[in-house]
Design a protein that fits this description.
Layout: H1 2-25, E1 36-42, E2 45-51, E3 61-70, E4 77-84, E5 89-91, E6 97-98, E7 101-102, E8 104-109, E9 112-120, E10 127-136, E11 145-146, E12 149-154, E13 160-162, E14 169-170, E15 178-183, E16 192-198, E17 205-210, E18 213-219, E19 224-229, E20 236-243, E21 252-253, E22 257-260, E23 269-273, E24 277-279, E25 283-291, E26 298-303, E27 306-307, E28 312-313, E29 318-324, E30 329-337, E31 346-347, E32 351-356, E33 363-367, E34 371-373, E35 377-385, E36 392-397, E37 400-401, E38 406-407, E39 412-418, E40 423-431, E41 440-441, E42 445-450, E43 460-464, E44 468-470, E45 474-482, E46 489-494, E47 497-504, E48 509-515, E49 520-528, E50 537-538, E51 542-547, H2 559-565
Parallel strand pairs: 24-32, 34-42, 44-51
Antiparallel strand pairs: 1-2, 2-3, 3-10, 4-9, 4-12, 5-10, 6-7, 6-10, 8-9, 11-14, 12-13, 15-16, 16-19, 17-18, 17-20, 20-21, 20-22, 23-25, 25-29, 26-27, 26-28, 26-30, 30-31, 30-32, 33-35, 35-39, 36-37, 36-38, 36-40, 40-41, 40-42, 43-45, 45-48, 46-47, 46-49, 49-50, 49-51
């Protein structure tokens, strides 16, 4: 019995020596790759197991060697060897060997490798060995004993296995690195961001400190952690970042970032000067004054939230911008000072600038007969220049309104009025104004009104004119006097401007061919002069819209022939 024990001890020693030699042949004999071994009896078998590195790092390949000794008296036939391993180890395909020879291998699950074949052991040939290689996974628990084991299948009821036969291996935590950055440069009373950068893949928390005093912590996210630090005083600083480690990585502390916290910025006040009103499209000055006067920086003027132009440099404590508002209404204007070295930024109080479109000046000219008869209608016309797009004219007789306001059409407003009293009448016309057009009043005209003789005949004059015409295109203007007359003349007017000379009335009508020289709306009237015993009269206004000529083009290059033949 004693001799048998001695043989077992000798075999174990021999197995350990073989494992050490194998490990050395793989170059893992360094202190950082120390093998671990364990001998365990399992039934009539002894498993002498060695792992090439008992403290491997993730990604490293390790070799498991199992020197097996048969301790019984029979001669069993082995059909398979089983090697149990932690699930975080991955079998290296094709790496298994039995007595140095390749062998059929099955990876039946994540924790078992099975090598199959046929091997006979006896009293004269008791020893056999196998090797298997694994890659250490990053998912291995760190600083934990990870158990390995073995099993053997043999006939004659001599199978045996021990899933915890050992040895155990331990995957240590990986070393980590840490660095820290401070931005912007620390200034008393202003926030700076402390940014720690740690080893990729590390998680957990970073502790930030200034001269050894913990400031606070930040959570690692994608390799960085941050902390907002607001120093309270101008003094030296030494910022470090200490990574506190996690399940896979060890702690580490950055090199310090040192310097001196600068003095706080001087507070500034920004005042804005702007006009209360402005005309649309007309430039006005916006002036910001920063106090105390800084040595630099810019002012951004704003209309509500929108920037007005680009930032303006501050010179001598002020910045001025000339700006033309493009929309009517109330504009809330502010000035934002950017700040500069040693000076804080500031924003002015808002100033309201009310913007409106400036009305164009107008003139109103009055056309009225110098004489009239009571009870006989005459035409009184007012022409507004430039022609407005709306508005009315109120005619007045000595300050008293004559009828209702008359809408301006084609710059002209015409009123048919019958004087009820004889005498001198002072007539004026007042244009009401319209959007973009100012009001104006015509100079007064005097109309001498007399009582008509009993035999004088009243007339009416009607005007026929086209609604549209082309610029410099001749059109026909026709005035018809009722009752029909064969005497007197008709004077045609464009606004208050006579069109040509008076045209004789024949058969109750007068006709004039006229070409308008300018595009736009033209208010045309006709004034009959009357004859002895026949009273004069004026027509209502007719608006002729004159358009500018269009470019006929080249006609495709055919020139005069193209026009000739169409």
């Amino acid at each position: 019995m004693q001799n048998r024990k001695l043989r077992r001890l000798a075999a174990a020693a021999s197995t350990a020596a073989m494992a050490a030699g194998f490990a050395a042949s793989l170059g893992v004999g360094a202190a950082s790759a120390a093998p671990v071994s364990q001998s365990t009896n399992s039934g009539d078998w002894t498993f002498n197991r060695t792992i090439s590195n008992g403290t491997p790092a993730p990604g490293e390949t390790i070799t498991v060697t199992n020197n097996i000794r048969w301790n019984g008296g029979l001669a069993p036939t082995i059909s398979s060897f089983k090697d149990y391993h932690p699930a975080c180890l991955t079998y290296v395909a094709g790496s298994s060997r039995v007595t140095g020879k390749t062998v059929t291998t099955n990876v039946t699950n994540t924790t078992l490798v099975t090598m199959t074949g046929s091997w006979i052991r006896s009293a004269v040939d008791r020893n056999i060995d196998y090797t298997v290689q694994y890659t250490v996974g990053a998912d291995c628990g760190r600083d934990l004993a990870l158990t390995t084991g073995a099993g053997i299948s043999a006939n004659q009821g001599l199978s045996s296995e021990n899933q915890t036969a050992g040895p155990s291996l331990t995957v240590p935590k990986s070393a980590s690195t840490s660095s820290v950055a401070v931005s912007p440069a620390p200034k008393a009373g202003a926030a700076s961001t402390l940014t720690a950068t740690v080893t990729a893949g590390a998680t957990g928390t970073v502790e930030f400190a200034d001269n050894g005093t913990v400031l606070g912590t930040g959570t690692v996210n994608n390799g960085t952690a941050t902390y907002a630090w607001t120093p309270s005083a101008a003094q030296p600083y030494s910022i470090t970042a200490k990574y506190l480690g996690d399940a896979a990585y060890l702690q580490s502390t950055s090199a310090p970032q040192t310097g001196t916290v600068s003095a706080p910025d001087v507070a500034t006040d920004t005042a804005l000067a702007a006009p209360e009103t402005a005309n649309n499209g007309a430039p006005v000055d916006l002036t910001a004054t920063v106090s105390p006067a800084p040595a630099g920086g810019t002012v951004q003027f704003k209309d509500g939230a929108a920037n007005i132009g680009a930032p303006v440099a501050v010179t001598g404590g002020s910045a001025t911008l000339s700006h033309a508002f493009s929309t009517d209404g109330a504009h809330e204007v502010t000035a934002v000072y950017s700040g500069a070295d040693g000076f804080s930024g500031s924003t002015s109080a808002a100033r309201t600038v009310t913007v409106s479109t400036r009305a164009a000046d107008t003139t109103t000219a009055l056309t009225a007969p110098s004489h009239a008869k009571t009870g006989v209608a005459v035409s009184i016309a007012a022409t507004v220049d430039p022609a407005p797009n709306a508005g009315t004219v109120q005619f007045l007789d000595g300050g008293t309104p004559i009828g209702d306001p008359i809408a301006v059409a084609g710059s002209v407003a015409v009123l048919a009025h019958t004087f009820e009293t004889a005498g001198s009448h002072s007539i004026t016309a007042v244009f009401s104004g319209a959007k973009g057009f100012a009001t104006s009043t015509a100079a007064a005209a005097t109309v001498q009104v007399a009582v008509p003789a009993p035999n004088e005949v009243a007339t009416t004059t009607a005007l026929a004119a086209p609604a549209t015409a082309g610029e410099n295109e001749a059109v026909t203007l026709t005035a018809t006097v009722d009752p029909a007359q064969n005497g007197g003349t008709v004077q045609f007017f464009d606004g208050t401007t006579a069109i040509g000379g008076p045209v004789a009335v024949s058969g109750g009508s007068a006709t004039l061919s006229h070409a308008f020289a300018s595009a736009g709306a033209h208010g045309v009237t006709a004034v009959y002069s009357g004859t002895p015993g026949v009273l004069g009269s004026s027509s209502d206004a007719r608006v002729v819209n004159v358009s500018a000529p269009t470019d006929p083009g080249t006609g495709g290059g055919t020139g005069s022939l193209g026009n000739l033949f169409g």
